[in-house]
Design brief:
The protein has 409 residues and is α+β, with helices and mostly antiparallel strands. The protein folds into 2 domains: 183 residues, no CATH class; 181 residues, no CATH class. Helix content is 56%, strand content 18%. Strands 4-5-10-7-9-8 form a 6-stranded mixed beta barrel. A two-stranded antiparallel sheet has the order 2-3. Helix 2 runs antiparallel to helix 9, helix 2 packs antiparallel against helix 12 and helix 11 runs antiparallel to helix 12. The radius of gyration is 34 Å and the shape is elongated. The two termini are 33 Å apart. The relative contact order is 0.19.
Length: 409
């Protein structure tokens, strides 16, 4: 311990003699560690943002969409015709044991008016399960009920963007708004969701009862059809089983045989989340790997300066060996200097990396996620660089012949 302490004091003295050279030597490590922490923080933040956006859609979800059909030799393309019905949704809920909730919907858009304010927004005809499937909180009022759906009532839920643009500071509860000139009563306010994975504002929305949308608001030549069906499995473990059950049921209901084209599409949103998260993690690793190149460059700079230091202090090394210093003492001295350089550079780099990540977050609104584990690994890596790149110069110093060293001018 005494030898290590003495080596540390000698290393500090040696670095103080050449402050500017020590600072320039540390610069590669400072930039490397700072870049690694900043890049990993930005990459992790982007990964979390994407995961949060996908998770905001809901959990354990299957999305059933209309598929393509062929008529007269012409294929309509995916979603080119309406092939799903409200009866399909009710059958899925009743006959698929692994399914917990089913939310059919129709979508449109329209102008909404309240007083002297108006706003163009997205309109959805939904059932009560939509709020549960989407994991959407209701911050005021109540949800749409099955009675609202069956009776095609003129009640609605509104999103936060609609609240901000139509009502300002006024309480919307119980107010009458006009959607496409039809009066609706606001019975509930949806909590804030933010952007979807496609960048759309999920809060710019109005929910009305499904039957109301079909019969009075959006209109259709096929009043029982729905644009999509969201299916929520009872838990993640039975999601694949739920997908098989839904597929089998829809094949039966749509009379789809072995040689007939499937007229619907089922998308597993949990698989989309897993693939996106994996892609984001790979991107974070790549960003960190690219930034780590500067650490290698910095380590080579450390080795270069330590070799110069050995050459400059050859006579000092010869004197130390002549008065009884052992080879391991000489090695420890130069290794300590190398580790001290990289450690100091690593500490400064960590501070700059954290500051840089926060500056990026504040300037462009990009979220960053600074992990304690990343900081610890970066700090340990900086010390490891000192040992790795300082070993050869230290070994060279310890291998000097004391007679030749004393003769060195």
């Amino acid at each position: 311990m005494t030898t290590l302490w003495q080596s540390l004091l000698i290393a500090l003295r040696a670095l103080r003699v050449n402050k500017m050279r020590a600072l320039l030597t540390m610069l590669g490590i400072i930039i490397g560690i700072g870049a690694v922490i900043a890049m990993v923080a930005i990459g992790s933040g982007a990964s979390k943002m994407i995961s949060d956006q996908i998770s905001s859609i809901g959990s354990n979800l299957l999305l059933v969409l209309p598929g393509s059909v062929t008529s007269g030799g012409m294929r309509s393309g995916a979603g080119g015709t309406q092939t799903l019905t409200y009866d399909d949704a009710r059958a899925i809920k009743a006959e698929c044991p692994s399914v917990g909730a089913v939310a059919p919907s129709v979508r449109g858009s329209g102008q909404v008016v309240y007083g002297n304010q108006n706003w163009s927004t997205v309109l959805f005809g939904v059932t009560p399960d939509m709020v549960h499937v989407r994991d959407w909180t209701i911050v005021a009022g109540r949800n749409i009920t099955q009675s609202d759906v069956d009776g095609a009532t003129k009640n609605c839920l509104i999103g936060q963007t609609v609240v901000d643009n139509l009502f300002g500071g006024t309480d919307p509860m119980g107010k009458i708004i006009r959607i496409k000139k039809i009066p609706f009563t606001v019975v509930g306010i949806l909590g804030r969701k933010g952007q979807s994975p496609q960048g759309q504002d999920q809060d710019d929305v109005i929910y009305v009862p499904l039957r109301t949308a079909q019969r009075k608001l959006l209109g259709s030549q096929f009043p029982n059809v729905v644009g999509s069906i969201m299916v929520q499995a009872k838990d993640a473990d039975v999601l694949d089983k739920a997908e098989d059950e839904v597929t089998e049921l829809l094949n039966q209901r749509h009379r789809i045989g072995p040689n007939r084209e499937v007229d619907y599409t089922i998308r597993n949103l949990s698989e989309l989340l897993a693939v996106t998260e994996q892609s984001s993690k790979v991107m974070s690793i790549l960003l960190g790997a690219v930034a780590s190149i500067s650490l290698v460059v910095g380590g080579i700079g450390i080795m270069n300066i330590m070799l110069v230091s050995v050459t400059e202090r050859t006579r000092e090394i010869g004197i130390r060996i002549a008065i009884g210093a052992k080879k391991r003492d000489i090695m420890l001295q130069f290794l300590t200097e190398a580790v001290l350089l990289t450690t100091c550079g690593g500490i400064i780099g960590m501070l700059l990396g954290v500051a840089g990540a926060r500056i990026v977050a504040s300037l462009i609104g990009w979220p960053t996620l600074i992990s304690v584990n990343t900081i610890i690994i970066a700090f340990g890596f900086s010390a490891g660089v000192g040992v790795f790149f300082g070993f050869y110069p230290a070994r060279k110093a310890a291998s000097l012949n004391p007679i030749d060293a004393l003769r060195y001018e």
